[in-house]
Amino acid sequence: MRQRYTLSRELVIERSWPVFLDLLVAAGLLAGFYAILWIAKFWFSGAIPEVEIYRSPSHLPLYAFYSTVRIFVAYLLSLGFAIGYGYVAAYNPRVEALMIATLDILQSIPVLSFLPGVMLAMMSIFPSRQIGIELGAILLIFTGEVWNMAFSFYSSLKSIPRELHEACTVNNFSPLQRLFQLELPYATIGLIWNSMVSVASGWFFLMVCEMFPVGSRNFRLPGLGSYLQTAASSGDNVAMVYGIITMIAIIVLTDQLLWRPLIAWSDKFKFENVESSTRINSPILHLIRHSNMLGVIQRNTLVPLGEMVYRGLAHRSERRYARNTSKTSSHRSSTAVFAVASLAIAAVIGIAAFHAITLLRLVHSHEVVLLFEGAAATFLRVNVSLLLATAWTIPVGVMIGFNPRLASITQPLAQIAASFPATALFPVILVALMKLGMGLGIGSIALMMLGTQWYILFNVIAGAMAIPSDLKEVARLFHFTSLQRWTTVILPGIFPFLITGLVTASGGAWNASIVAEYFQLKNRTLMTQGLGAQISAASNRGDFPTLLLATIIMALMVVTINRLIWRRLYKLAETKYRLEG
Amino acid sequence: MTEPIIRAQQVEKFYAQPSENRIQVISPTDLAIVPGEIVALLGPSGSGKSTLLRMLAGLSKPSAGEVFWHEKPISSVKIHVSIVFQSFALFPWLTVLENVEAPLKAQGMAPAERRERSLKILNTVGLDGFQAAYPKELSGGMRQRVGFARALVVEPEVLFMDEPFSALDVLTAENLRSELLELWDNKTIPTRSIFIVTHNIEEAVLLADRIIVLGRNPGHVRTDFRVSNMPHPRDKKSQPFTHLVDYIYKVLTRPDVPPSDVPTLETGRKVRDQRQMHYEMLPHARPGGIAGLLELVIDLTNQSGGRADIYKLADELAFEIDDLLPIVDAATLLGFLQVEEGDVLITEDGREFAESEILKQKELFRKAALDHVLLLRQIARALNNKSDHTIPEEFFLDMLDEQFSEEETQRQLETAINWGRYAELFDFDAARRRFVLPEEEQDAEESAFEASGE
Q: In terms of CA atoms, which chain A residue is nearest residue B106?
């Protein structure tokens, strides 16, 4: 026990808490068990593609529960996939470059383009069960969550210090032990931060994909997103307020019950040699750590199981040495297997690509022209929204960053604002915009900003806080004019952070264009010219050739912009504008 | 002759290049570790000390040749070795006890036995009561004790140590060294042989029964001898001790001269020295450091009549040989210093350089650089010949990486840029990664270049 309590009051708490803690934990476990039963019953019931959405607030908790479960399941899938993908990519030099390039491109494909395909596929796998539609929605959110997590895990693996790896090798760690004692701990912090971003973007897309048409069919899942859309299209303001409050409550609860404990817990995985002074505290983590019941459960299940597995692995490696198998022959056969497998995969990919290209031939030439015009319009809109967002976030962010007291108040608020799915607010804002007489052409810019400006604000605040005070003092000492102060101290100082924010925001804005440029409200379809609107429209019509071409165009544009502009600026930021030596 | 535990037979390490050339890191080397000895491996940075250690420990596969463990190929058998790392390589998220238990867990040992053995070894290395602490709560010396405990808990036959004391302060290192010797001499640990890589000559002479000195470009064994008639603990002030330290300094500072016989000690074999290099390797020293060293040498030689002992010089500066050697090498390369028998002599040019004021110094440095350093001469000439007076960095990178590893190529170019900027031979545009001739100085540069002759 490293902590010592000197105050008697704390001693009392220390003694009496565990009982309550155990009761709480027990209640939590029971509730979780019940929730799983409930979800299982619902998912395996008959499919109701067009479920009725009630606007009464009494249904909200259930809707919120359904949506949260979708997010949670999608997140778990993403986590598993990210770890598997990152692991394979990091340790197989033969496929590493290919896998990372794939990740880069997949990341640039607009998530919602997958929607009709994924939905129809899942419906045909589980034709008569609710789980089909549910899995469709979950897989869709998954595609919005997974890529940055996979990247994070991969780059963590690649940056593990060589000597730690050698310590594992020289002590004959099994891959499993290496995973649990080296790789996962090393990657934990990066994974947690990326998880927060991922879950936020999961909510963003869930709001949209709980209710949508594909071709002649309408899909509707009971959930918070469909509740908000129903409320908006029937003009029920009270219901909308309830829905938004529920959403905020979920975001705040996730932050308090999940992220904060996780961040506090992950502090021990910091790869540093000195103990840091500032720490995030979390009462929930304290609760979990001091619960006797969880401790007993862990000691009696996980620990012995782990021992068994490690013993088994050690014996297996003993036997391998005893048999003294020559490695070269197995190596040769694995090369052969690899060659055959890659040939087969290449063949399948080739055939699929050929079919996709024949599909593209069905797109009319005038439609192609329209698509390119739409791409130009969306390009313009994305950049205007970035510019506007930058214009207000730089002064505000710098002001907040230079004022530590203000920063400590606003940062958590900004974090919540950033986690709040902008799509939940879309209906409200659209209604307001239409009352003001503005069209979606301008409105969509506002909607894009709503989703992306927070990333920029965040980073500007962090950048302003990172400017060393001696640089600011120099500016004061030599009586820099305010123009000079901005051009020589502040802007170069926040540049790397600004770029990081802009890269994220740019990707987000392209993705948001699909929902921002095309909206169905009160049985009316609002749309403006743009690639995003064309993707949405094609998806709703079930016009797959156009959808495919539009998606390819958007992915290509995003990849090109990333390569040509952002990556270069990033490099510049990393070399010229780095503040620490 | 006892049977060796580990025997390396003609091991070498090289990296294939896209062009036909390959970069030789270690030339074919024979080496054997026999029971009952502490072997110290010394050498300048870039001589492949750590690479050799990793090949012997089975961590890295030799590019050619083979390593044997009790006369069986090392990849086919289970070997009993462990390593103590320079950076400790502890898992920061595991407690001290968990760190030490981890290798036993890998062996599938039962929890109770694991715990008992770990606590025992923690006791041995003096970490009683720290088992629940996390490494980041400990001082550097304590952390390395955990490193030792983790290495020793598996009772290795051979204990490898990769500069285990160089991340520690002098006193802590001294303390840990003597404790290690105590464990070894009293046979408290079942380890049969210790193999330590170090760049600290005194450390090698303090600990080792046998000392191997590596040379570089590519790495090769220059001398390999036993330290006889010096029982532990050794007295740093004794005659044989200082003689041996002096002798090793001489070997290290004169890479071109085959090592002479060790005074009163048996010598090792000579190994062929295979370098056919186009570019001389630029030592990574800064011009300011060179000037500072020369001034010190002048002071020292004034006191002692013409010569300065490098060992004394290092002592005076409280420098490790690894820090001092590049500066001495650089001064020698530029013709400012001469090294003879472990002593340094300042040349006329060197004296003039050290005693001039800054602008004159730059001019002398420029002249010396153009006279003696091929790479700088090539950069300067190419810049003068090109009409726009700019050359991308890749041009020289391509030429250098025929000869150096990727990392070393970068460092070579960095040093060249450093020297060239100081000499005002050229400037380097870091944003666009290219060499440029400063506009206003182009004319002056050209005349200076011509005046220096070629």
A: A173
Cα B46 to the chain's mean position, in Å?
Answer: 6
Beta strands in B342-436 (DSSP E): 343-346, 390-392, 427-429, 434-436
Q: Identify the contact set of chain A against chain B, taking CB-CB distances under 8 A.
A: 2, 161, 163-164, 166-167, 169-174, 177, 181-182, 185, 268-275, 307, 310-315, 317-318, 321, 324, 326-327, 572, 575-576
- Find tokens 């004794």 and name the residue: B238
For the B277-355 domain, the top CATH level (class) is: mainly alpha
Residues of chain B with pLDDT under 50: 264-276, 445, 450-454
Which of A4, A164, A170, A317 would best serve as a mutation to test chain B binding (most B beta carbons within 10 A)?
Answer: A170
A530's CB contacts (< 8 A; 6+ apart) are A374, A377, A378, A381, A444, A513, A517
Residue B327, C-beta contacts closer than 8 angstroms, at least 6 positions apart: B283, B285, B289, B290, B293
Is A326 close to B76, i.e. CB distance below 8 A? yes
* Distance (Å) from the alpha carbon of B351 to chain A's nearest alpha carbon: 34
* CA separation for the pair A411, A462 (Å, rounded): 9
Cβ atoms within 10 Å of B133's Cβ, excluding its own: 16
Domains in chain A (CATH in brackets) are: 44-275 (1.10.3720.10), 362-581 (1.10.3720.10)
- Tell me, what amino acid is at B27? S
C-alpha pair distances (Å), B149 with each of B120, B143, B152, B171: 9, 10, 5, 20
Q: B393: buried, middle or exposed (CB in 10 Å: 19+, 13-18, 0-12)?
A: middle
Model confidence over A238-261: pLDDT tens digits?
888 888 899 999 988 888 888 888
Structural contact between residues A281 and A264, judged by C-beta atoms closer than 8 angstroms: yes
Which of B76, B91, B155 should we substitute to test contact with A (largest number of A Cβ atoms within 10 Å)?
B91
Confidence class of residue A77 from pLDDT cuts 50, 70 and 90?
A: very high
Pairing of strands B6-16, A524-527: unpaired
Selecting from B58, B76, B89 the residue whose C-beta is nearest the C-beta of A167 gives B89
Q: B31 has which bridge partners?
A: B8
**Residues B385-429 pLDDT 10s:** 888 888 888 888 887 877 777 778 888 888 898 898 888 888 888
Q: Which has more confidence, B454 or A338? A: A338
Q: In chain A, how many H helices and how many E strands?
A: 25, 4
Beta carbons of B82 and A170 less than 8 Å apart: yes
Q: Is A387 helix (H, G, I), strand (E, B) or coil?
A: helix
Nearest CA in chain B to A568: B431
| CA pair distance A284, A28, nearest whole angstrom | 12
What's at A498, amino acid-wise? L
The three-class DSSP label of residue A47 is coil
Closest listed residue to residue A50, CA positions, set A203, A206, A213: A213
What's residue A17's pLDDT? 57
Strand partners, B69: B6, B72
| Domain B6-253 in this protein, CATH class | alpha beta
Closest Cα partner for A164 from B97, B85, B163, B93?
B85
Q: Do A575 and B92 touch (CB under 8 A)?
A: no
Residues from chain A that touch B87, judged by Cβ atoms under 8 A, are 161, 163
Tell me if residue A50 falls in helix, strand or coil: strand
ipTM (interface predicted TM): 0.71
A525: CB partners within 8 A, 6+ apart: A518, A519
**Could you give the 3-state DSSP secondary structure of residue B54?**
helix
* Joined tokens for residue B379: 């950069």
Please check the confidence at residue A168 and state whether its pLDDT lies above 70: yes
Q: Which long-range contacts (CB under 8 A, 24 or more apart) does A471-475 make?
A: A472/A402
Binned at pLDDT 50, 70 and 90, residue A5 comes out as very low
Distance CA A578, CA A75 (A): 34
